[in-house]
Amino acid sequence: MENHSRDKGKATQTDNEDKDDLQSVLTLQRHLLMEAKTLDSDLDFAFQLQMQEAFSASLSVHHPSSSLDVTLSPPSDMGFDYVTLMLQDIERFEMERKDREESEEEMRRFRNDLNRSIYDQNFARYIMNVPEQEWNNYGDNYERPYDGNVVESQNEGFRVYVKGLVSEERIREMKVTVGGVGVAICDFWNNLVLELRKKLDGAEFMTGEMAGVEAVIHGLNAALSLDLKRVTLFVDDFLVYQFITGRQQPGQSKLGTKVNEVSLLQKRFTYFQPSFAARNDMSFVFKLARDAIVSQITWPVETSNGKGLKETCMICFEDTDATQMFTVDGCFHRYCFSCMKQHVEVKLLNAMVASCPHEGCNTEVTIDSCGKFLDPKLVEIMSNRKKEASIAVSEKVYCAFPRCSALMSKSEVLQYTRTVMLVAEQSGARKCVKCHRFFCIYCKVPWHFDMTCIDYKRLNPHPAREDAMLNTLATKKRWRECIKCKHVIELGGGCYHITCRCGFEFCYTCGAEWRNKKPTCSCPIWDEPNIIHNRQRRQ
């Protein structure tokens, strides 16, 4: 261990000496070039003076009476200024060197943090394997502080998540194609070690698969920079996965070159295993790639509140403050609040669940996120719509109290009631999850504590006023109640074979059940005037 530390110190000292030597060479070269440029300028100035004197002497010999004061304008420098170009190259080289040193220093810091993490985890596993009796006797004396030395991580497996995206966006009046890469490296316990987001150069000439392969290259290079030897690579693009595993060969020459580069990088690991992951497991790295794209389509502006960012909405093409742009969870497409508000409201009016407006994207717009631009009442409507769609009709239960009428599923309300009443399933009592009051799931009325359902119905033979009005209207309009879910149905036209939304099939005339698409009664299946009426209404 001491020899390793000594070697590490010598290597660091040698690196510092090399940097100092390089800095001295650059400084000396810059000094020599500046002297050469100054000398060249002096020689040029002396040459111009000699030419001016010779020109004046020539005029005085041939035109002695002339009193013209001739001043020779300095000739325009039509030659190439190699000295200035070399000085610019040195400045650029020095800037790149500084950027590279800062990047290397950052990666060294990451490696040190990673070594510390691996060291702590190894020590924690060691402690977990200490016998209980030994720990009780000597546990207070266990200590092994991290000494800063490199921890061998060959046996540690790391997870590399990558995602590459190419997207057509709009910057003011111009359509652009931009790309981004997201990389996340996690340890075996899925703790984040490093995350990267970079833009893709030349994205306008890339396909989605090529962007995915580029992301793999960035991810593997990042893993190698951390001296990782055992990695599992996760991608969510099946075609990219096929390319990496060699199960499918790319057709394009450029893509083939990139796939070959991935193959060369694979060989630098002692263990490399590609894995195909579900989209939901890659959402965090997907967001990194999308953030890299967004950073390329925003531009800084001066506002009344100071500096801000502008972005063009892909629906209305208006330049909008970046803080007023809505990001759809899951796909991370962005649109202004105004356009999203109209989009979601139209979907609600048509009793539909709102999805991302991007063409070909079916990502559902989450209810919680809509609170940024929707009225709270509409958010509640969306929540209820989603809940209604997720519960089967035969499982739906509504609170019996009219001022609540909360929607629940039978299993949900039963489980909630069991927390306060052990015999809930036998009694029929249910506790509303919203208003927390008890009601009878069979009688659909507030809970009758001191009597059974039979006694309650005998003492209350007449339905409630609201139910009586509905029954009267149903009788008048000849509506039919489904005997399975109690849903009231009106026949607008057509045949008398009814399929309720709960799936129960019955005869609209008498209510008898249909089995295997056949009636169990002798009622007529259709009536000609009713069919004609229905056809005329459609026309």
Automatic annotation (TrEMBL):
<dbReference type="InterPro" id="IPR044066">
    <property type="entry name" value="TRIAD_supradom"/>
</dbReference>
<feature type="domain" description="RING-type">
    <location>
        <begin position="309"/>
        <end position="527"/>
    </location>
</feature>
<comment type="similarity">
    <text>Belongs to the RBR family. Ariadne subfamily.</text>
</comment>
<feature type="domain" description="RING-type">
    <location>
        <begin position="313"/>
        <end position="357"/>
    </location>
</feature>
<dbReference type="GO" id="GO:0003676">
    <property type="term" value="F:nucleic acid binding"/>
</dbReference>
<dbReference type="InterPro" id="IPR001841">
    <property type="entry name" value="Znf_RING"/>
</dbReference>
<dbReference type="Pfam" id="PF01485">
    <property type="entry name" value="IBR"/>
</dbReference>
<keyword id="KW-0479">Metal-binding</keyword>
<dbReference type="InterPro" id="IPR017907">
    <property type="entry name" value="Znf_RING_CS"/>
</dbReference>
<dbReference type="GO" id="GO:0016567">
    <property type="term" value="P:protein ubiquitination"/>
</dbReference>
<dbReference type="Pfam" id="PF13456">
    <property type="entry name" value="RVT_3"/>
</dbReference>
<keyword id="KW-0863">Zinc-finger</keyword>
<keyword id="KW-0677">Repeat</keyword>
<dbReference type="InterPro" id="IPR013083">
    <property type="entry name" value="Znf_RING/FYVE/PHD"/>
</dbReference>
<comment type="pathway">
    <text>Protein modification; protein ubiquitination.</text>
</comment>
<feature type="compositionally biased region" description="Basic and acidic residues">
    <location>
        <begin position="1"/>
        <end position="10"/>
    </location>
</feature>
<dbReference type="GO" id="GO:0008270">
    <property type="term" value="F:zinc ion binding"/>
</dbReference>
<keyword id="KW-0833">Ubl conjugation pathway</keyword>
<dbReference type="GO" id="GO:0061630">
    <property type="term" value="F:ubiquitin protein ligase activity"/>
</dbReference>
<dbReference type="GO" id="GO:0004523">
    <property type="term" value="F:RNA-DNA hybrid ribonuclease activity"/>
</dbReference>
<dbReference type="InterPro" id="IPR031127">
    <property type="entry name" value="E3_UB_ligase_RBR"/>
</dbReference>
<keyword id="KW-0862">Zinc</keyword>
<dbReference type="InterPro" id="IPR002867">
    <property type="entry name" value="IBR_dom"/>
</dbReference>
<dbReference type="InterPro" id="IPR002156">
    <property type="entry name" value="RNaseH_domain"/>
</dbReference>
<feature type="region of interest" description="Disordered">
    <location>
        <begin position="1"/>
        <end position="22"/>
    </location>
</feature>
<comment type="function">
    <text>Might act as an E3 ubiquitin-protein ligase, or as part of E3 complex, which accepts ubiquitin from specific E2 ubiquitin-conjugating enzymes and then transfers it to substrates.</text>
</comment>
<keyword id="KW-0808">Transferase</keyword>
<protein>
    <recommendedName>
        <fullName>RBR-type E3 ubiquitin transferase</fullName>
        <ecNumber>2.3.2.31</ecNumber>
    </recommendedName>
</protein>
<dbReference type="InterPro" id="IPR036397">
    <property type="entry name" value="RNaseH_sf"/>
</dbReference>
